[in-house]
Amino acid sequence: MSRAKPSSVVATTRRAVLWVPDWPVAAAMKEAGLKTDAPAAVLHGRGLVAVSAAARSAGVRRGQTQRLAQRACPDIAILRHDEGRDSREFEPVAAAAEQVVAGVEISRPGLLMVPAEGAARFHGSEEALAEALTGAVAELSGYECAVGAADGILAAVIAARSVSIVPPGKSEEFLRGLPIQDLALAAMERRQRESVEGLVDVLVRLGIVTLGDFTALPRADVVARFGAVGRWGHLVARGHDVRPPVVRRSLDDISVGYLCEEPAERVEQLTLIAAQAAKELDEALLAAGVRCGRVRIEASTERGDTLARVWRTDVGVRTGAFARHMTDRVRWQLEGWLSGTAQGPEPAPLTSLSLTAEDVVSLGDEQAYLWGGTSGTDSRAHRTVERLQALLGVESVLSVAEQGGRSPRDRVLALPWGQETRQARRVDHPWPGQIPDPPPATVLPFAEPMEVLDAGGSPVAIDRRLGMSASPTWVRLQAEPGQARPAATRRHPSAGNVGWEPTWGQARPVDAWAGPWPMVERWWSEDSSRRAFMQIAMRNADGSAGPAVLACFSAGQWWLEAIYD
């Protein structure tokens, strides 16, 4: 009698998590030679990504701009973001933890995981294991850490952040009352975090504010509405771990080696070694038709010592993604070893390197990735965009993201493609005076002049009390809405030209209008802005319904800001 194959396998793994609070800023402060009680923050892009305890007590928060942080704490030290430094500096912590437990796994710099069951039996209890890890890390690396244990990755991470031991089988109850935003703590990669944060944003707008509210929803409905990311979130919020969709056995590990012709002791040598080894491992995995969940990095020194570390890898099969991902991690790991963090006071040059892919599975058995799986079309698109950036420059290829703001133009954030930069303004903050929905479909690169006329053909004006001189009856634009408008853009003074003269099109009758809505910003400063916005729907020459636009009245002139569908 045949048995149906299960659609998924859910397992619960007992984990101990070691977490170093505010790791990016802790690593940056050590590199800069600052004391641990100094106010400091790490700036990445336009916002702070990590804040020290002293800075938090002064009112500095993550996501703030440098100006706001310095306003709250004038003595704060603003440090640069460096992912490589974070990984290298974390090596002493991992080495100290290995003095207590063999085979630790680095999930990301500042966070490592330990299989709790065997280690707890060896030390007598999970409490004893946590005490041993905390003491070893403080003594050998000089960092303070927190250790927690629970069933499932999310509960274990939160337990570490709260320094608690969750009894077996109690993880779902432990998570039930926590805010839904904590779901992102279980995402270890940047793309994963972006997908989970998008899911959380939708759930909050639906009124689901706790993990218990989320897990109370029927799983089938969650999967139907949110897909793979919803299924993942629903499982980890219940204290489970997500496993591949079918029961399978891991294949044999795949290993590649690199023997140095001369002992490596310079960063330039390590960069070439890391790139070559990562490329060879990627080619070996693709040739075998497999992927891996972890990579073990092992190196030998001139003294005969053997150094080893395990890194988790969740990057899918996009062309070149695995090689680039592992090149950085191997290089950072080798630099950490060569700097002496794991070899004692006198580090020895490295003579050989080997990379071993662990948790190897066939591509057909690989779990779909959180951000939507893999695609050859996606790979070709990535290569095309990268080629354009190489030809035109980094700033010439932009990606668009949403940020907080009042006008549609303020809510558009254009960033160089592939650059990881935090949003300048949070979308979920209140924005009094925001233009009401629906949002326009097209926001022009530059606002273009337009004319709004009354029935007699005179310009319509808006005074400081929002009083209009007359009802809008006619509208004249420089180009047809929705069509290419390069000439109009070039004539606009914000494009770098002076003395422009607009070329007006045919006047269109106004079908309906709404507004005006005032917007006064930075009224206390010299660069204050006072504007009034209006939605205007026009009619075509044949009397049919025409396009709708968002118009702005500023400094006695009407401007075309955006176009509605």
List the helices and strands and how they pair.
Layout: E1 10-11, E2 14-19, H1 23-32, E3 40-44, E4 47-51, H2 53-57, H3 66-72, E5 77-80, H4 83-89, H5 91-98, E6 105-108, E7 111-115, H6 116-123, H7 126-140, E8 146-151, H8 153-161, H9 171-175, H10 190-205, H11 211-215, H12 219-236, E9 241-242, E10 254-264, H13 267-288, E11 290-291, E12 294-301, E13 306-312, H14 321-338, E14 350-358, E15 361-362, H15 376-392, E16 398-402, E17 412-416, E18 442-453, E19 474-476, H16 486-491, E20 508-521, E21 529-539, E22 545-554, E23 557-564
Parallel strand pairs: 3-5, 6-13
Antiparallel strand pairs: 1-9, 2-7, 2-8, 3-4, 6-7, 10-14, 11-15, 12-13, 12-14, 16-17, 18-19, 18-23, 19-20, 20-21, 21-22, 22-23
Helix pairs in contact: 1-4, 4-14, 5-7, 6-7, 13-14
Task: Give a quick precis of the structure.
With 565 residues, the protein is of the alpha+beta class.
List keywords for this structure.
565 residues; alpha+beta; Alpha-Beta Plaits; Dna Ligase, domain 1; 4 domains; 8-stranded mixed β-sheet; 16 helices; 23 strands; disordered N terminus
